[in-house]
Each structure stands twice: as structure tokens, then as C-alpha cells.
DNA sequence: AATCTAACTTAGTAGGCATACA
DNA sequence: TGTATGCCTACTAAGTTAGATT
């Protein structure tokens, strides 16, 4: 107990890098020194790093006098601290999370901590709190900003740009690089995903005193805001972050990091895909091995073989253990429980069907039925025998042991590489199947999106159905109906011209040709609309962006664009092109993943 | 060997913004 | 010229991995 407490204390008040010792610290044993220096040399991320430190969220601005908080029907003037937290809740009143019991309980408990003793005595039930005026005030403010005259908006934009120029860049090894997030996160109420036990807790304001600055020794050290000081200034060139602080919800670090367009990030991205390409070279061997291991007499080996099969075939995440009660209950491959698996000897006319149904990352549901080999099926039956629904399916397996095994198979191989590999190889293959050189650019882009979608489905990248989906779908249907009518009309006209032609001779043959061409065009357009509608429906719940940004080797897409003369702008937005800048010189039209 | 956790990648969403449309 | 629409980006939560510690 005491030990635990000490650990918590240390976690709270120190910020000691544990992975790589500070490069200036003296080393003990001489024998380990060479190894350390070797490792350290590889892990040096920069020689020079200079920046202005984070930009802090604006101080709290008290509510104007006309905006009141009511308790039990009576207006109550809150202390500044209590008022600030009340506004955080009031702003969110229109969101569903404020109706959730856990959210309300956590919020109220944390809010009471900010109250004066006096307030705490009076405000004892959230049900009796009325934030309506606060809510209205913030909604009106948002609305006012939205309807600001053009030149005012322009001015705000310029101010934002100025801020970006001042705080949004750093110097890294002589190059001016964009920072990803140069602002500290403002205080707010924690919005976990899914059934998060901590939703509604107060995420406290970050002060300069919380922030560790990382920059090179000889650089201009950023100035803390006046009257304040940094928690620490250090110079650790084995890490890539510029500043860091501990957040109070999970007690973990938050970092100020570089933008994906930076050289450092780009190189890392390139490396990631190179590892995945190396996997391509030995994946057959790995598959053969895990298939053989399904028959191993060792339970451990069989569990590993079946888990790896899932990771490979279904592109599941590895699935680390999580501390119960600290986060939403979600799982990945290694943390699957018996309750997440259903075995069907026969289903949908197939033998050996496995049904997986669980909440994965971000509490997104994974629900899939898949036919497996008999050995896999029998192994699963065995793994589930005499277990409770809440027991782990792979009880003899951890992510660490899995990754250790993979590391032995190939340097740099970890479980997530399979996701990258399968995603990229699927894109390449689908592009090959779906692209027709003679198609229009529009059709080719459609084909690309379909290939992208195949990957997104594989990786289970979902999104909420867009709020306007039904409406815009209806609109598209109307367009289709209108086009159908046009086609019908064109047909009638064509028939009429044909009839005229028979009675009046060939004097109108030119008009016949014209009508035929017109009909064809309309039919083509109708077919296109049908395709668009089918695509829209298929995309309803599928998020394409995640795969595009994180799993698909950009060289595949760039090569495809070059080969089929599709402008890259049709595939990548401006920021995406900046992010993938590293790939443009590395991919000619016959690049193969 | 198990556990912890720093540092990094991967993830969905809200809302801003540009563009199409009336 | 204002409004609806759909795309894009900022934001930040939630994963993975591996070195250090116990």
C-alpha cells in the first residue's frame, strides 16, 4: 500500500524519462556503455530544437451580470472557480453525454471540489441546478461569431495566422518545421468514448508550472508567460516532443509534437511502410508456420498461432490488457474474452464459422462472421472449454509474448505491422482489379474510393452516420427519378423521329443520330447516378480517412495517379499532400508495395 | 517474468470553411 | 447574396510498443 502510494507520488511530482537515460547522465558499468551509446546514437532525434513553448488557453472570462445560474429556482452568484466549472457544463447542455448518469455524477463531484464551503452547503443536488441562461449565453456567442460580418471574420483569421506564425513553428536542425498542436488543451469536462467510467470529470487548466519544455541546450529557451515559470526545462534529444504535461484524468502525458508534414514524422512514416514491405517478403513463411502450429501439442503455441491467424486474417489489433474501471471495457485480439466468440459448426451454408462480437478501440463494435479452418475451429472450442464468459480466450498469451515471437521472426515485426501490410496490399490489389484505363477521371476516382473502402471495412473504421445522410440520400433519389423521366422522354422522342423517318424518308436522319446520342448520354448519366447512390449507401458508416492517413502506403496511391493520369489533388487534400511529401520522390508509376 | 509507463501512432468527431446552389 | 451542403482540419482520446523497474 505504502509502495503504491509512493509510486503515485513520484508519478505526480517527477518527470523522469525512463526509457533512455539522459544523455548527460554519467553511466556506470563500462561494459554496457558501448551498447548504450550504440542505442543512443540510433535514438538521437535531433541536434537542434528551438521553439516558443506552448500557447496557453485564454484565462477564464467571468459571465456578464445578466447571465445567471439558478439553484432550486433561485439565482445564485457563484465564486469565480465554481462559475468557471459551471460554464463548462452549461456549454454542453445540448450534448447527449450530459444526460448520462456517470457523466453527471463525475461532473458534480468534481464541481463541488471547486466550490467554496458556503456553495457546497447550498448546492447539493445537480437536479436542482439550472444552467439554461449559461447555455443560452454560449449558444448565442457561437451564433454571433458565425454571423460576424466578412471583414471581422477576416480579421480573426489574420489573428489566428499571426498566432500560428509565432507559436506554430519550431526550428529543428536548421529547418523551420510546423508544430502539430501548439496550444495547451483548455479546461473542460472529460469526454471519454463509449462507457467510460471517468466521463464528466474535470480536466483541469494547464499552467506553465505544469509544463516541461524540451529544447536544445544552446537554443533560445522559450519565455514562460509573465509571472510564471516552467516546471522544468530539459534537453533530451532522444525524444521528439517539444513540451509535455501530465493530464489529471488518466495521469498520463500529453505532448506538444511536430506536424505530420515534418521531416522527422515523414521519415518515421516511411520506415513504417518499409517494415510492412519486409513483412510481405516473409508472410507466406509466417503463415505456413502458424498453420503448422495449430497442431502443436503445446497449448501456448496453439494459442499464439490462432491469435496470430486472427491478427493476420482479420487485421485485428493486438489488444493490450487494460486496468479495469479506469477506461471503457474494450478489447483486441489478445484480450478477447469467451463471451466475444460464438462458434457455429454450420452457419449460412458454411462449415466452421466463427462469429466475433466485441467493442474495440474507441468502443467501436466489431461484428464479423468468418469461415475458418477446421483446426482453428477445434482449437477455439478447446480454448473456450470450461471457461466463464468473462474469461480470456487466449489465457496463455500476452501482447508482450506475441510481439517477442514476432520480433524473432523478423526484425521490427510487431502485431500492428500486419494491419499496415494487409491494408496496403489490399489497396494495391483492389486498385489493380477495379481500375480501367479507359474510364473517365471521375470513374477512376470512384474506383479508388472503393479500393480505399475495402481497406476501411477490413480495419473496421467506422463513423457515425452523417446527420444529413437521409436528407441528402433522398435528394439523390429525386435526381435519379428526374433522370429516369428524362430518359423515358428521350426514348419517346427517338421513337417519334424513327416513325417520322419511315413515313417521310431519310430527310431527318441527322436528327435521328442526334436523338440517339442524346439518349445514350442520359442513360450514361443515369447509370452514374445509380452508382453514386450505391456508393453513398456503402459509405454511410465507413470512415475512409483513417486508412488513408495511417495504413495505406502513399506511394501506392501516387504511383496509381501517375499511371492512370489522375491528378493527385483528386486523391489527397492539401494537408495530406504535405503529410506524404516524403513519398512523392519515391514513387514512379510502377512502384510496387 | 511481470509490471509499469513514456513516447509514440491511430482514431472518431465537432464544427469551421469553402463551394454549390437558390 | 444568403443559405445549404459536404469536405477538411483541429482536437484530443485511445490505442501499441518497448525499455526500465520490481
Detailed description of the structure:
This protein is an alpha+beta fold and 593 residues long. It folds into four domains: 49-56 and 157-263, DNA Topoisomerase I, domain 2 (Beta Complex); 69-148, Yeast DNA topoisomerase - domain 1 (Arc Repressor Mutant, subunit A, Orthogonal Bundle), CATH 1.10.10; 266-422, Topoisomerase I, Chain A, domain 3; 433-584, Topoisomerase I, Chain A, domain 4. Helix content is 49%, strand content 10%. It is built from 19 helices and 15 strands. The strands form five sheets. It has a four-stranded mixed beta sheet, with no helix packed on it. A three-stranded antiparallel beta sheet has the order 1-5-6. Strand 14 (350-359) and strand 15 form a beta hairpin. It is globular, with a radius of gyration of 30 Å. Residues 1-36 have low confidence and may be disordered. It binds a DNA duplex (22 and 22 nucleotides) through helix 1, strand 12, helix 11, helix 12 and helix 16.
Secondary structure layout:
Elements: H1 2-13, H2 31-43, E1 49-50, E2 69-71, E3 74-76, H3 80-90, H4 101-114, H5 117-122, E4 129-130, H6 132-146, H7 150-167, E5 169-172, E6 175-178, E7 188-189, E8 202-203, E9 212-214, E10 232-234, E11 243-246, E12 253-256, H8 263-293, H9 299-313, E13 341-347, E14 350-359, E15 365-371, H10 374-384, H11 399-409, H12 415-434, H13 441-458, H14 469-504, H15 509-539, H16 545-550, H17 554-563, H18 574-579, H19 581-584
Parallel strand pairs: 9-10
Antiparallel strand pairs: 1-5, 2-3, 2-4, 5-6, 7-8, 9-11, 11-12, 13-14, 14-15
Helix pairs in contact: 3-4, 8-9, 8-12, 9-12, 12-13, 14-15
This protein binds a DNA duplex (22 and 22 nucleotides) through helix 1, strand 12, helix 11, helix 12 and helix 16.
Amino acid at each position: 500500500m505504502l509502495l503504491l502510494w509512493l509510486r503515485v507520488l513520484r508519478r505526480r511530482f517527477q518527470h523522469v524519462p525512463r526509457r533512455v537515460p539522459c544523455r548527460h547522465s554519467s553511466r556506470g558499468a563500462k561494459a554496457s556503455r558501448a551498447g548504450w551509446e550504440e542505442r543512443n546514437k540510433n535514438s538521437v532525434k535531433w541536434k537542434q530544437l528551438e521553439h516558443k513553448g506552448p500557447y496557453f488557453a485564454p484565462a477564464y472570462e467571468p459571465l456578464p451580470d445578466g447571465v445567471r445560474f439558478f439553484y432550486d429556482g433561485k439565482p445564485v452568484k457563484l465564486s469565480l472557480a465554481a462559475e468557471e466549472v459551471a460554464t463548462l457544463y452549461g456549454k454542453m447542455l445540448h450534448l447527449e453525454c450530459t444526460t448520462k448518469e456517470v457523466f453527471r455524477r463525475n461532473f458534480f463531484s468534481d464541481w463541488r471540489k471547486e466550490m467554496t464551503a458556503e456553495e457546497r452547503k447550498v448546492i447539493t443536488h445537480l437536479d436542482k441546478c439550472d444552467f439554461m441562461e449559461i447555455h443560452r449565453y454560449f449558444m448565442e456567442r457561437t451564433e454571433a461569431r458565425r454571423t460576424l460580418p466578412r471583414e471581422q471574420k477576416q480579421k480573426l483569421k489574420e489573428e489566428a495566422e499571426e498566432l500560428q506564425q509565432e507559436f506554430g513553428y519550431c526550428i529543428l536542425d536548421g529547418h523551420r518545421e510546423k508544430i502539430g498542436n501548439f496550444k495547451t488543451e483548455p479546461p473542460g469536462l472529460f469526454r471519454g468514448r463509449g462507457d467510460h467510467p471517468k466521463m464528466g470529470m474535470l480536466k483541469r487548466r494547464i499552467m506553465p508550472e505544469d509544463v516541461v519544455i524540451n529544447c536544445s541546450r544552446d537554443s533560445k529557451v522559450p519565455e514562460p508567460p509573465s509571472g510564471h515559470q516552467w516546471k522544468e526545462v530539459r534537453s533530451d534529444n532522444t525524444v521528439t516532443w517539444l513540451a509535455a504535461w501530465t493530464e489529471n484524468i488518466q495521469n498520463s502525458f500529453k505532448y506538444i509534437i511536430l506536424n505530420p508534414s515534418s521531416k522527422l514524422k515523414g521519415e518515421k512514416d516511411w520506415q513504417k511502410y518499409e517494415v510492412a514491405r519486409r513483412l510481405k517478403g516473409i508472410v507466406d513463411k509466417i503463415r505456413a508456420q502458424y498453420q503448422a502450429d495449430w497442431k502443436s501439442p503445446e497449448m501456448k503455441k496453439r494459442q499464439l498461432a490462432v491469435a496470430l491467424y486472427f491478427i493476420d486474417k482479420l487485421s485485428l489489433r493486438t489488444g493490450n490488457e487494460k486496468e479495469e474501471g479506469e477506461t471503457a471495457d474494450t478489447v483486441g485480439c489478445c484480450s478477447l474474452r469467451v463471451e466475444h466468440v460464438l462458434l457455429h459448426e454450420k452457419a449460412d451454408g458454411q462449415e466452421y464459422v466463427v462469429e466475433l462480437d466485441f467493442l474495440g478501440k474507441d468502443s467501436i463494435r466489431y461484428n464479423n462472421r468468418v469461415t475458418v479452418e477446421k483446426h482453428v475451429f477445434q482449437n477455439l472450442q478447446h480454448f473456450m472449454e470450461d471457461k466463464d464468459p468473462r474469461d480470456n480466450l487466449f489465457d496463455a498469451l500476452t501482447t508482450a509474448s506475441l510481439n517477442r515471437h514476432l520480433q524473432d521472426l523478423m526484425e521490427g515485426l510487431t502485431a500492428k505491422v500486419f494491419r499496415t501490410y494487409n491494408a496496403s496490399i489490399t489497396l494495391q490489389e483492389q486498385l489493380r482489379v477495379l481500375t480501367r484505363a479507359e474510364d473517365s477521371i471521375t470513374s477512376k476516382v470512384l474506383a479508388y474510393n472503393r479500393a480505399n473502402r475495402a481497406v476501411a471495412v477490413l480495419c473496421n473504421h467506422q463513423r457515425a452516420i452523417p446527420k444529413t445522410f437521409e436528407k441528402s440520400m433522398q435528394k439523390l433519389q429525386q435526381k435519379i427519378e428526374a433522370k429516369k423521366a428524362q430518359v423515358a422522354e428521350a426514348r419517346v422522342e427517338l421513337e417519334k423521329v424513327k416513325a417520322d423517318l419511315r413515313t417521310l424518308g431519310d430527310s431527318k436522319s441527322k436528327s435521328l443520330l442526334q436523338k440517339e446520342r442524346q439518349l445514350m448520354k442520359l442513360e450514361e448519366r443515369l447509370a452514374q447516378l445509380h452508382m453514386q447512390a450505391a456508393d453513398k449507401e456503402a459509405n454511410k458508416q465507413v470512415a475512409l480517412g483513417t486508412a488513408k492517413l495511417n495504413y495505406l502506403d502513399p506511394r501506392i496511391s501516387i504511383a496509381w495517379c501517375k499511371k492512370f493520369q489522375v491528378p493527385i489533388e483528386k486523391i489527397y487534400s492539401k494537408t495530406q499532400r504535405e503529410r506524404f511529401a516524403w513519398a512523392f520522390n519515391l514513387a514512379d508509376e510502377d512502384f510496387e508495395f
